[in-house]
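Quick start: what a row looks like.
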Amino acid sequence: MQCKCGSEATSQKAIKSKLKAKIEFYQCGSCTRVSSAVLFIQDVEVATDPRSRTLFDELTGESAASLLDEVRREQELSKFELFANGELF
Protein backbone atom coordinates (compact mmCIF):
# COMPACT_ATOMS: atom_id res chain seq x y z
CA MET A 1 0.00 0.00 0.00
CA GLN A 2 1.26 3.46 -0.80
CA CYS A 3 1.20 6.21 1.83
CA LYS A 4 -0.07 9.73 1.11
CA CYS A 5 3.56 10.92 1.33
CA GLY A 6 4.44 8.61 -1.57
CA SER A 7 6.46 6.04 0.38
CA GLU A 8 5.53 2.42 0.91
CA ALA A 9 3.30 1.52 3.87
CA THR A 10 3.60 -2.01 5.23
CA SER A 11 1.12 -4.19 7.06
CA GLN A 12 1.64 -4.30 10.84
CA LYS A 13 -0.22 -5.72 13.80
CA ALA A 14 -0.31 -5.51 17.57
CA ILE A 15 -1.70 -8.27 19.78
CA LYS A 16 -3.14 -8.44 23.29
CA SER A 17 -3.09 -12.22 23.66
CA LYS A 18 -4.84 -12.42 27.04
CA LEU A 19 -7.80 -10.53 25.54
CA LYS A 20 -7.63 -12.45 22.24
CA ALA A 21 -7.48 -9.08 20.51
CA LYS A 22 -5.38 -7.77 17.66
CA ILE A 23 -5.25 -4.65 15.57
CA GLU A 24 -4.00 -4.70 12.00
CA PHE A 25 -2.91 -1.53 10.24
CA TYR A 26 -0.59 -0.05 7.63
CA GLN A 27 2.36 2.07 8.71
CA CYS A 28 4.54 4.18 6.46
CA GLY A 29 8.23 3.45 6.74
CA SER A 30 9.12 7.05 5.96
CA CYS A 31 6.67 9.38 7.73
CA THR A 32 5.33 6.71 10.19
CA ARG A 33 1.69 7.60 9.37
CA VAL A 34 -0.74 4.86 10.41
CA SER A 35 -3.88 4.10 8.40
CA SER A 36 -6.56 1.50 7.73
CA ALA A 37 -6.62 0.08 11.26
CA VAL A 38 -9.02 -2.79 12.00
CA LEU A 39 -9.64 -4.21 15.47
CA PHE A 40 -10.41 -7.92 15.89
CA ILE A 41 -11.51 -9.75 19.03
CA GLN A 42 -11.51 -13.55 18.78
CA ASP A 43 -11.00 -13.11 15.02
CA VAL A 44 -14.23 -11.09 14.70
CA GLU A 45 -13.91 -7.59 13.24
CA VAL A 46 -15.31 -5.20 15.86
CA ALA A 47 -14.08 -1.74 14.79
CA THR A 48 -12.31 0.18 12.05
CA ASP A 49 -10.58 3.55 11.83
CA PRO A 50 -10.66 5.98 13.53
CA ARG A 51 -12.25 4.27 16.53
CA SER A 52 -10.23 1.05 16.39
CA ARG A 53 -6.91 2.46 17.63
CA THR A 54 -8.46 4.14 20.67
CA LEU A 55 -10.47 1.05 21.54
CA PHE A 56 -7.39 -1.18 21.28
CA ASP A 57 -5.32 1.11 23.51
CA GLU A 58 -8.05 1.20 26.19
CA LEU A 59 -9.16 -2.43 25.87
CA THR A 60 -9.92 -4.40 29.05
CA GLY A 61 -11.41 -7.85 29.52
CA GLU A 62 -14.81 -6.32 30.17
CA SER A 63 -14.75 -3.91 27.23
CA ALA A 64 -13.52 -6.67 24.88
CA ALA A 65 -16.42 -8.93 25.87
CA SER A 66 -18.87 -6.05 25.52
CA LEU A 67 -17.63 -5.10 22.03
CA LEU A 68 -17.75 -8.71 20.86
CA ASP A 69 -21.29 -9.16 22.21
CA GLU A 70 -22.42 -5.94 20.50
CA VAL A 71 -21.05 -7.03 17.13
CA ARG A 72 -22.54 -10.51 17.42
CA ARG A 73 -25.97 -9.03 18.26
CA GLU A 74 -25.74 -6.75 15.21
CA GLN A 75 -24.81 -9.73 13.02
CA GLU A 76 -27.79 -11.71 14.31
CA LEU A 77 -30.13 -8.77 13.71
CA SER A 78 -28.82 -8.46 10.16
CA LYS A 79 -29.50 -12.14 9.53
CA PHE A 80 -33.00 -11.77 10.96
CA GLU A 81 -33.71 -8.73 8.76
CA LEU A 82 -32.56 -10.62 5.66
CA PHE A 83 -34.71 -13.60 6.59
CA ALA A 84 -37.73 -11.36 7.28
CA ASN A 85 -37.31 -9.79 3.84
CA GLY A 86 -37.12 -13.22 2.18
CA GLU A 87 -33.50 -12.75 1.14
CA LEU A 88 -32.09 -15.90 2.75
CA PHE A 89 -33.80 -18.41 0.53
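That is the whole record. DSSP finds two helices and four strands in the chain. The longest strand covers residues 9-16.
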